[in-house]
Write a structure and sequence with these properties.
The protein contains 15 helices and 20 strands. With 512 residues, the chain is of the alpha/beta class. The protein has two domains: 360 residues, Spore Coat Polysaccharide Biosynthesis Protein SpsA, Chain A; 77 residues, no CATH class. Strands 2, 3, 4, 7, 8, 9, 12, 13, 16, 17 and 20 form an eleven-stranded mixed beta sheet that branches. Strands 1-14-15 form a three-stranded antiparallel beta sheet. Strand 18 and strand 19 form a beta hairpin. Helix 9 packs across helix 10 and helix 9 packs across helix 12. The longest helix has 31 residues. It is globular. It holds the Pfam family DUF4301.
Length: 512
């Protein structure tokens, strides 16, 4: 039994973490987290919808028609730091000395593809003019120019972009005026999340960056409002300390810092289910901060979002009618069959094999449980080899089959059958979600009731030279939404433009 000291209990209280929760996490470390059990890859015709142009137009019209009577929110996870985006550049500064070798020799010696792409495309970066204007000496060998450029970009006493949140870096250059992802989300949001003269956006940010975001809004907000004709309601939240997770040593005992305190670590993006649960709207769009398109692609992106929102409204209307029937009166056999067919065919719900053999009252109880859930419509792009999660039919520990977004780390790639299913996946999850979080009475669901705690991750880390195990919570669009009703829809590739590395800014989708 783990003994907690008086100081430990004080630390837990300050973070808002119950002792029972910590004990559950220790048990999770001891037992391990099992791999998911893939049943099939979700593909078009079996788990993924693909609409014709005329069907898309109908869904867009449906959403636009209802928009003025809806509360709409755009929710943007934006706490990502830029340091990871510049990883290759930081490494370059550490290992390259322009006084000792040419850039060509360095590239030949190291095969550093990112620096090759970066150096060849530097002039097309959105911040090129700014950085060059700050260099005291713009001449020199190619290696010297690139080295000094990167030093100015990342240096603590220079632009210090490595410290910035990713959302506040210049991403796009419009004839000499640069735009950050934050600004692009404001402009994009106006196209599908704005109604009745206003648009609401919520950004989850790191506490240390909140003032920077507020300053950016003060700078660009009036211009964007003027261009779009909308007033913006912007607010922010932080990952809650209560969602931090315990780290343990290799014997599954709490890992302690040199000062004796217990080490807690941020729980990953799955912690944001708490932030999402604090929001309330008829429709919530979710999209990562670094996934923005240049404005020439904005209409196509916005239309795609409207298709997803129209899909939600269409299916939700029926779900609400059936949920009301279940609540208000005794159902007939035909009505039970009608509702179960709707759940199966339109909300991808799978019933246990004994469903047809249980009593009518038991069947109604199952229907009530299955239909009264939040709904997520998730856009899926064709898989072009990007790393990350994908859409699958999964069987959980209780034998229940459902549609899930699964990361490769959750799959046992040593199991040939599971690996084959993974390889047969045709689509990729770009974090493009439209969520319905209210029930048929207009009451918001408690989203924390629909999390599958068995979909977290245990990873190995080190601190102060010692090995430890860390726990990552079920991802926001993975296990944190595992028990939602789910519909996957194919969306165009133009909707997926993430910037994971600085060289991604050189892709055509980020060039104006």
């Amino acid at each position: 039994m783990i003994q907690f000291t008086e100081n430990d209990e004080k630390q837990l209280k300050e973070k808002g973490i119950a002792k029972e929760k910590v004990m559950e996490q220790i048990n999770t470390f001891k037992e391990g987290i099992p791999f998911v059990n893939l049943r099939n890859a979700a593909i078009i015709g079996n788990g993924i919808l693909k609409f014709s142009p005329s069907e898309e137009n109908e869904l867009i019209k449906l959403y636009e028609h209802k928009l003025t009577n809806l509360e709409v929110l755009k929710f943007v996870p934006a706490s990502g730091a830029a340091s990871r985006m510049f990883k290759a550049l930081f490494n370059f500064l550490d290992v390259y000395d322009p006084a000792k070798e040419t850039l060509k020799d360095y590239l030949g010696r190291t095969g550093d593809k990112d620096i090759k792409i970066f150096s060849e495309g530097m002039e097309r970066l959105p911040f090129y003019d700014l950085v060059i204007s700050r260099l005291p000496n713009k001449n020199g060998t190619e290696g010297e120019v690139v080295y000094h450029f990167v030093t100015e970009l990342l240096g603590e006493n220079a632009l210090n972009y490595g410290f910035y949140p990713k959302g506040l870096l210049p991403f796009h250059n419009y004839n000499g005026t640069t735009a950050t992802p934050f600004e692009e989300h404001l402009k994009e949001g106006a196209l599908y999340a704005g109604a009745n003269g206003k648009a609401k956006l919520h950004f989850t940010v790191s506490g240390q960056h909140e003032e920077m975001f507020k300053e950016e809004f003060a700078k660009v907000g009036p211009r964007v409002s003027n261009d779009t004709g909308l007033q913006y309601e912007i607010d922010y939240s932080f990952q809650k300390p209560s969602t931090d997770t315990l780290a343990v040593d290799m014997e599954n005992k709490p890992f302690r810092n040199p000062d004796g305190t217990v080490l807690f670590r941020p729980g990953g993006h799955g912690a944001l289910i708490e932030n999402l649960n604090d929001q309330d709207a008829d429709i919530i769009f979710i999209k990562n901060i670094d996934n923005v398109a240049v404005m020439k692609d904005a209409k196509e992106v916005a239309d795609s979002k409207k298709v997803l929102a129209g899909t939600l409204l269409k299916v939700q209307e029926k779900a609400f009618e059936y949920a009301k029937q279940i609540e208000e009166r005794q159902l007939t056999e035909n009505e039970i069959e009608e509702i179960s067919s709707f759940l199966r065919d339109e909300l991808n719900v799978r019933f246990n094999e004994d469903f047809s053999t249980i009593s009518m009252n038991e069947q109604i109880a199952v229907l009530r449980d299955k239909i009264n859930r939040p709904i997520r419509i998730a856009g899926m792009v064709k898989n072009e080899g990007e790393p990350g999660g994908g859409p699958f039919w999964v069987t959980n520990a209780n034998g229940e089959v459902s549609l899930q977004i699964i990361e490769s780390a959750q799959i046992n790639m040593d199991d040939n059958q599971q690996a084959d299913i993974m390889r047969n996946s045709t689509h990729f999850n770009p974090v493009d979600l439209v969520c319905g979080v209210r029930n048929f009475k207009g009451e918001k669901y408690n989203l924390l009731k629909f999390v599958d705690d068995k979909q977290g991750f245990i990873t190995g880390k080190t601190k102060d030279g010692k090995e430890l195990k860390a726990l990552e919570l079920p991802g926001l669009w993975n296990g944190a939404m595992a028990f939602w009703n789910t519909i996957f829809v194919e969306v165009p590739l133009v909707t997926f433009n993430p910037v994971k590395s600085v060289v991604d800014l050189l892709k055509e989708s980020h060039q104006v």
